[in-house]
Amino acid sequence: MATTQLKSGTPKTSIRTLRDDHRKILALFQLYLAISPDSRHATVDQILGLVEEHLHKEEALLADRASQPGDQADQLIEHVVREHEEVRAMIEDLRGSETDDDQVLDEFFEVMMQTLRMHFLAEERDLFPRLRPPAG
């Protein structure tokens, strides 16, 4: 797992950074859907790069958090990391695709977008609140 640290020093700021990443990626999904299919390649490359960077940052935060004894979010963190592995496999499939059929690639990419939307929603609803330091 990644050992690099996020730029910010506090978990709250780190979570904000991850949420900002979610918003940026979701906005690019909207851009992707709005442009003509023959112009989407550069946007897909940009999205895939941002997703990979985001997963790396998130795993750095989770690695730090998972190492804290008594963490109640361990199972949730394991689930999130498994989902990251699935997304990475999808990215690898997209990048390694040898088909020139834009429709097939668009359909697969749209499945990946839906997977990421659900993943982001679950993280913000279930994981991020557990990663905040206790009040007080």
TrEMBL record:
InterPro entries: Hemerythrin-like (IPR012312). Residues 14-131 form the Hemerythrin-like domain. PANTHER family: HHE DOMAIN PROTEIN (AFU_ORTHOLOGUE AFUA_4G00730) (PTHR35585:SF1). This is Hemerythrin domain-containing protein. It comes from Nitrospira defluvii.
